[in-house]
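ok trying again, last paste got cut off:
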Amino acid sequence: MNTNEIQQAVEQILDSTPFIDIHTHLFDPSFGNLSLWGIDDLLTYHYIEAELFRSSSIRPEAYWILSKEERADLIWKTLFVENTPLSEATRGVIAVLQALELDPSAPTLDSFRAFFRKQDLAEHARRIFRLAGVSEVVMTNDLLDPQEQARWHEGAERGVGFHAALRLDRILTETGISGDLSHFLEMSARNMKAVYMAVSLPDSFMYPRDDISTRRLRETVLPVCRELGLPLALMIGVRRSVNPAIRSAGDAAGRADLRSIEHLCSEFPDNRFLVTVLSRENQHELCVYARKFSNLLPFGCWWFLNNPSIVEEITRERLEMLGVSFIPQHSDARVLEQLIYKWRNTRRTLAPILADAYKRLAEDGRVVTRAEIQRDVNRLFRGNFEQWTSRRAY
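nice, full thing came through this time. structure:
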């Protein structure tokens, strides 16, 4: 193929390949009000709330006493009518509305609310999957959360296309947990049919250290993961509540000491680790460790890194250092319709990156075929994750 044919082939293959979204905060429709969807949830997403506080005079204490609908109305008026929605988060809402054939220039939310009221959530979810080009998503499931625990006990299920991931944040840190924790984790993972376990960690995380997190990782979590054939996903670099007044929007990012990854991969060679880091400065170091440890698989451009300029930099670096032995992206979506714009952005950003890599390969004398491009895209957005999560004991 010549360079124009390569570009076209990459774009077509990215558009036609259904992706697996390996990390979201979505819920299957059977989880009821835990499932966030529709215009009011889209607009009151914490990324957008943070922008509101920068672009208006409203104080957080006045904002939080408003109903969700009143908050959404204020955000629409402030960020979409009185200001141009140029940020990634606000432009994403515009992309969703356009994909659903709604007028993104509407002065109020009335027509949008009328549209979403008519939707059957299960059918709407299937449509969103099609529009986003995803076949499966992985939820984030915290069995110590009372609401979610109640939903599982009431018979909530994972519908077609939804997988469970067992979240460990509180399990690793809370001291009041009683009983056989290993048994609890094993039975929970089996009942949920979890595809991995996961934990979000601060930038100050260190392993090993004389603390409860190290003890539970070493004595409980990693042995259970190994027994069940489950990877452990480590998401490192969060600084919680640097501005608690704005709630979920008040978290920040910090650079971590990734020697913890070195110690974990070395001490537990039979465990598999999915790792993403929140600091831009940690990205190169993560790639270096992935070259040293075959039980480490970098994934995604998480949270504040999910901007095209930074995604481009990180993805080029990973391709140059790791070939296709990583997972380029996950959506981290909290609201169902966010899948549309987050995966549209990914395809649009990655097309020139992959095309450039194949063009350079062709210029250096290696014939590039469409079949090879399809194989690589399948591996990046499906195969690596399927292989990493396939060896389960249930």
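cool. The first helix runs from residue 3 to 16. The first strand starts at residue 19 and ends at 21.
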